[in-house]
Amino acid sequence: MDAAASTVPASVRDNGFYLGMSVAIAVAVIGGFGSFALRGLVDVGRAPYWVHVHGAMFVSWTLLFVMQNAFAHRGSMALHRRMGWAAVGLATAMVPLGAFTACMAVVLDRVPPFFTTPEFLALSALELIAFAGLLTGAIRLRRRTQWHRRLMLCAMVAIIGPAFGRLLPMPLLGPLGGLAVMGGQMLFVAVGMAHDLVSRGRMHPAYGVGAAVILAEGLAVPILAATPPILWLASALAG
């Protein structure tokens, strides 16, 4: 690397990588939900309106995530910051709507057949908590670019489990389905870690935080699903 290139901040050199990662995540999300609909595994026309709103908000978030990385890649940081506050508003609405949609899936008996009702509620709760926690960390550290962009990536990865659940043959995986979904999510984090090792010679600690949260999200599902509050909620909603 020549002297001029070595003076370029790592955050600038990494812009192309994070844009590529955001596009790859968007392809996984849209491909997962799109293929599910194209295979006739969901009746889009009969889905309740809040499911459509939830889906539209999630797709909007995914596209905004790509746009934010594109703005950073082209150096449009003022626009990136302005759109960042729009993203905060969208995320603030996504979390309660996601919780409502999960609860209504139980009420209307729309829980995927490869989950028990308590498992579905536990997974939904943990995904939303992981997303909100990582996103909050990314917002608080928005002036520390290295932390911000990695925590944003991990926050996005934390909520793409349902997309992998539609890409993978979940009925065939049985009890290993949850681990397979978590493995798909962790693959994105592992790519980010590998990029750090190649480009920086060490892994940034933000990936350690993100990986720990995502692993806890997946591994804690059966534990939370067996707790009295979740069992009571599952029974109350189904009844």
Portion of residues in helices? over 70%
* Largest sheet data: none
Terminus-to-terminus distance: 65 Å
For the secondary structure, the number of strands is: 0
Count of folded domains: 1
What order do the helices and strands follow? HHHHHHHHHHHHH
Radius of gyration: 19 Å
Number of helices: 13
- Overall, the morphology is globular
Could you tell me the strand content as a percent range?
Answer: under 5%
Please state the structural category: mainly alpha
Poorly predicted spans: 1-7
Mean pLDDT: 88
Summarize the structure in words:
There is one protein chain. By secondary structure, this protein is mostly helical. It has one domain (3-238). It contains 13 helices and no strands. It has helices at residues 3-6, 10-13, 15-38, 49-74, 77-107, 117-140, 145-158, 161-167, 170-173, 177-200, 205-219, 221-225, 228-238.
Briefly summarize what is shown.
The protein is an all-alpha fold and 239 residues long.
Features:
mainly alpha; globular; 239 residues
Helix and strand layout, with pairings?
Elements: H1 3-6, H2 10-13, H3 15-38, H4 49-74, H5 77-107, H6 117-140, H7 145-158, H8 161-167, H9 170-173, H10 177-200, H11 205-219, H12 221-225, H13 228-238
